[in-house]
């Protein structure tokens, strides 16, 4: 019995079905994630719910805190109920939470809705990545996940158009009602999505696994070796033995700055660009260009890392990101500004992924999953801090420092990942790090 799923012609159609359904789910995830940043300039201008810039930053952090909770608990929940059921639950959760935001009459209720939505958003993405990796055709796992991640940025593009078409004529609540629409996708997902074969095999549900494998002409994966809790804690402790604690902290700090930058810019880009004198339509165009850059970056970063090395590319990408973010605080001709926003999206949205690649390559096989998972988890605290920081700067009437602050986060990640790479020049481990890297994305 092989360790991966071998696909025939019908199995390839199964892979296409799983990837297609997961792509749509992640598209809705991206829409819900980016919609707040897209409507925020209008909410602040209209003083919707009496919101202030400081509260706006807090609200952005509520969603990312919910994502932290969702990401950290998704693995445990998926192991209990299955990946399919968790995906269905996550889509339903963030859709219903958007409805709560749409009907909210106070900042408190709106914040509760964004927190609940964050839990669903944080749980969906790693589960969808696991699903497509499980059914990816041989040798195409990384490419398949890269294609899946484009859906998140496509959702960001969609959020800009939803805000552009609905917010001015109808109001900000209409945008959140659009984010309730994925509820219509829930029964489709529940009916059409197969359960993960790896989950069925791991849970000893052999009859179900064999029936699904026979229906789509795929080969069953091998049962995974049991991983005891003590082994996981031992792997975590191994990250701090001897001089490894310095390396571990450098990776965590780089990830913190990277996700602070990613979510800070994602939340505040339209508002900060309006502060630079652009109207709402132009500010939302920047969101479109930023996410188009993200799609290009996700598809191209892996090839650059394979050729030149993930640590080197990660450091260079963060330097270019910092330069691009800082330039956005400078008045430039519109065409040049559009170009800078696009290129910033290219580098920013893939620089963080290459931190995971660096950690994965430079970890040994015994603790690789733990190293990447904890690097991702520590970075999530930066995702919470970034939106809050932008709100505090605006509340202090220092919005002009917003881009500078985010640029400094990029510089810090460049320094930390660069030092970590120089301190450790181990040869890449022989076993493939791909599964552990993708699971942490």
Could you please describe the fold and organization of this structure?
The structure is a single chain. With 441 residues, this protein is mainly alpha-helical. 80% of the residues lie in helices and 0% in strands. The protein has 17 helices and no strands. Helix 11 (244-275) runs antiparallel to helix 12 and helix 11 packs antiparallel against helix 16 (402-423). The radius of gyration is 21 Å and the shape is globular. The protein starts with 8 loop residues before the first helix and ends with a helix.
Share in helix: over 70%
Instruction: Tell me the distance between the termini.
Output: 29 Å
**Got a strand count?**
0
Radius of gyration: 21 Å
Taken as a percent bin, the fraction of beta residues is under 5%
- Class per helix and strand makeup: mainly alpha
- Overall pLDDT score: 80
Number of helices in the DSSP assignment: 17
Shape: globular
Poorly predicted runs are 1-10, 426-441
Main beta-sheet strand count, sense and barrel state: none
What is the ordering of alpha helices and beta strands?
HHHHHHHHHHHHHHHHH
Brief write-up:
The protein is mainly α. The chain has helices spanning 9-46, 53-81, 83-103, 107-135, 141-170, 172-178, 186-192, 197-202, 206-216, 229-238, 244-275, 280-308, 310-327, 334-361, 368-395, 402-423, 434-439.
């Amino acid at each position: 019995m092989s360790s991966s799923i071998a696909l025939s012609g019908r199995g390839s159609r199964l892979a296409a079905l799983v990837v297609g359904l997961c792509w749509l789910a992640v598209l809705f995830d991206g829409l819900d994630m980016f919609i707040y940043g897209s409507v925020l300039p209008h909410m602040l201008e209209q003083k919707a719910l009496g919101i202030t810039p400081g509260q706006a930053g807090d609200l952005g952090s509520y969603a990312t805190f919910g994502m932290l909770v969702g990401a950290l608990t998704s693995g445990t929940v998926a192991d209990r109920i299955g990946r399919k059921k968790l995906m269905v639950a996550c889509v339903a959760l963030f859709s219903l939470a958007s409805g709560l935001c749409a009907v909210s009459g106070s900042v408190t209720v709106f914040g509760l809705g964004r927190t609940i939505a964050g839990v669903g958003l944080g749980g969906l993405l790693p589960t969808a990545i696991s699903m497509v990796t499980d059914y990816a055709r041989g040798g195409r796992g990384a490419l398949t996940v890269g294609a899946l991640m484009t859906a998140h940025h496509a959702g960001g593009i969609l959020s800009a158009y939803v805000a552009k078409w609905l917010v001015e004529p109808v109001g900000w609540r209409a945008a959140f009602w659009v984010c309730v629409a994925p509820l219509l996708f829930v029964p489709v997902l529940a009916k059409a999505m197969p359960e993960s074969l790896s989950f069925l095999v791991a849970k000893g549900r052999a009859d179900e696994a064999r029936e699904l494998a026979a229906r789509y002409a795929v080969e069953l994966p091998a049962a995974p070796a049991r991983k005891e809790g003590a082994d996981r804690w031992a792997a975590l402790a191994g990250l701090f033995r001897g001089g490894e604690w310095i390396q571990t902290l450098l990776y965590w700090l780089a990830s913190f700055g990277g996700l602070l930058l990613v979510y800070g810019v994602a939340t505040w880009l339209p508002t900060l660009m309006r502060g630079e004198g652009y109207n709402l339509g132009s500010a939302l165009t920047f969101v479109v260009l930023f996410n188009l850059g993200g799609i290009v970056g996700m598809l191209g970063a892996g090839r650059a890392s394979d050729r030149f090395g993930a640590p080197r590319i990660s450091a260079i990408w963060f330097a270019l990101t910092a330069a691009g973010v800082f330039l956005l605080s400078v008045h430039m001709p519109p065409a040049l500004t559009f170009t800078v926003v696009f290129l910033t999206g290219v580098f920013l949205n893939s620089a963080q992924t290459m931190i995971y690649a660096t950690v994965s390559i430079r970890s040994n096989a015994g603790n690789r999953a733990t190293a990447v998972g904890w690097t991702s988890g520590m970075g999530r605290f930066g995702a919470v801090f970034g939106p809050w920081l932008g709100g505090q700067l605006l509340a202090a009437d220092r919005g002009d420092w917003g881009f500078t602050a985010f640029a400094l986060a990029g510089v810090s990640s460049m320094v930390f990942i660069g030092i970590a790479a120089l301190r450790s020049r181990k040869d890449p481990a022989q076993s493939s790090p791909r599964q552990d890297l993708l699971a942490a994305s």
